[in-house]
Design goal:
alpha+beta; 23 strands; elongated; eight-stranded mixed sheet; five-stranded antiparallel sheet
Length: about 450
């Protein structure tokens, strides 16, 4: 018998949420076949099997949070009898896949399903309780001893079960209408709507569309509980948990200094239109953000102290100046804010950078950003202009020195050669780590970014 434990799919990962099983007890699996989908603090990750054989136990339930190293699944090796005495893989060693999946042999009798994982630190926390999963952590017997009790009494497809967990709904309370007696997505939605309407009687704020949208957004990040006195409770986890920790650390560790500048971006808008019509850029998404990205890279190379970070070492603090630019792009996704970065962005042409931006945004929206894409950023951009915001005071991404906020571009009255004329104007803001740079260095960097937006032709010398 071989037990596959939750691996560290990214440097420093301590825990992950189990989203959905892709296999069931009794299934025959192959090496590298996807076993389970987990959600880390940064992305959704599919874990492949390091073993070939028969699934004998699922050691954790969907929706729980597990510590790295906790058992996930038991697999009986090919040719072995799945009775608890199955042999480990022929090589007797742990297997891995691209360094992301690590398994450990375990000849002990598989344990039962658990309702929550071990804590990630020595501080004790109350166990997380899943609705409708009572007894999931209790031992059972027989060939189906390691299946979820709820799955034995209620028929429902995995997506419906996943949605029920997000909504905090006990599927045994839902009347099934499926052709085979299973609970359908419509059944679950109808039940949730009835419950929501019932809660609305004591929580007027939920009666409007805004309240419903807020709850829908919350479902993606935690487990919603029925409102009490007009208050809904959402367990913080995943990206929201990681973002909160990172922002608190950054805001209260790095002393921020923020600067702003209004920019005549008319020539940038004209340049973007020319690129869209260019034959070489056909099929490539071109937006003003592309010019901003190129401007930040250009400015970072002219002001290398911005492309740096403050590092505390055993021998004292030091400033590490990077010779490469890993450009981070803050992306709002259904799972929360993530800041993946384009590695060695300074080596990319305008067209290559445009493709990289589109690829990065697409993966972020789909929740497929890999841990590697989230690491080692050197300077970042947050595009608040897409929401019609002029600018803001962004918080520096941890491990970096600067972040640029790119505001909306709109026509405004602007003085050109003594005359007031309509021009496309934007506001660029920036926050910087005052431990690493002084105000004049920040100002030079921001002025360089603004100069490119005012005259993209300067990039010809880049």
């Amino acid at each position: 018998m071989s037990t596959f434990n939750l691996p560290d799919v990214g440097e420093g990962l301590t825990e992950a949420d189990l989203v959905q099983w892709k296999v069931a007890v009794g299934d025959t699996v192959k090496v590298n076949q996807v076993l389970v989908e987990i959600e880390t603090a940064k992305s959704l990750v599919e874990l492949p099997s390091p073993y070939a054989g028969t699934v004998t136990a699922l050691r954790a339930a969907e929706g729980v949070t597990l510590e790295v190293g906790a058992p996930l699944i038991d697999i009986a090796a090919e040719g072995a009898v799945p009775d608890g005495g199955a042999a480990a893989p022929s090589d007797g060693a742990a297997a891995s896949n691209d360094g992301a999946a690590v398994a450990e042999a375990d000849d002990a009798t598989p344990g039962p399903l658990v309702g929550s994982g071990p804590v990630a630190d020595p501080v004790k926390r109350r166990a997380r309780v899943r609705r409708g999963a009572a007894g999931a952590g209790a031992a059972s017997s027989g060939t189906s001893a390691n299946t979820n009790e709820a799955k034995k009494t209620v028929k429902a497809k995995p997506p419906v079960r996943a949605l029920a967990k997000q909504l905090g709904v006990d599927l045994s309370l839902v009347t099934p209408t499926g052709s085979h007696g299973e609970v359908t997505r419509d059944d679950l939605s109808d039940y949730a709507d009835r419950r929501l309407r019932s809660a609305s009687a004591s929580a007027p704020t939920l009666e409007n569309d805004h309240g419903r949208e807020a709850l829908s957004a919350a479902f993606g990040e935690g487990t919603w509980t029925e409102p009490t006195d007009g208050v809904e409770h959402v367990r913080v986890k995943g990206v929201r948990k990681a973002t909160a920790a990172a922002m608190v650390s950054s805001a209260f560790t790095a002393p921020h200094v923020s600067l702003f500048v209004d920019v005549d971006a008319t020539r940038t808008m004209e340049f973007v239109q020319r690129l869209k019509k260019a034959r070489d850029f056909q099929g490539v998404k071109v937006t003003p953000l592309l010019v901003v990205a190129k401007a930040v890279i250009w400015a970072a190379q002219r002001n290398p102290q911005i492309n740096a970070s403050w590092v505390d070492t055993p021998d004292g603090a030091e400033i590490q100046v990077k010779s490469f630019v890993n450009l981070g792009i803050a992306a709002a996704t259904p799972r929360g804010l993530v800041v993946p970065n384009i590695k060695n962005a300074d080596e990319l042409s305008m067209k290559e950078l445009a493709k990289a931006l589109e690829h990065l945004a697409g993966r972020a929206r789909e929740g497929k950003t890999s841990p590697a894409e989230m690491r080692d950023g050197t300077v970042s951009i947050t595009n608040v202009g897409t929401l019609g915001i002029d600018t803001g005071t962004p918080i520096i991404n941890p491990g970096e020195c600067g972040i640029i906020a790119f505001g909306t571009v709109r026509q405004r009255p602007w003085v050109v050669d003594g005359e007031v004329v309509p021009r496309y104007v934007t506001t660029v803001g920036g926050s910087f780590d005052h431990r690493v740079v002084d105000g004049d260095q920040c100002a030079r960097f921001l002025a360089d970014v603004a100069s490119i937006l005012e005259e993209p032709a300067l990039l010809l010398d880049f």
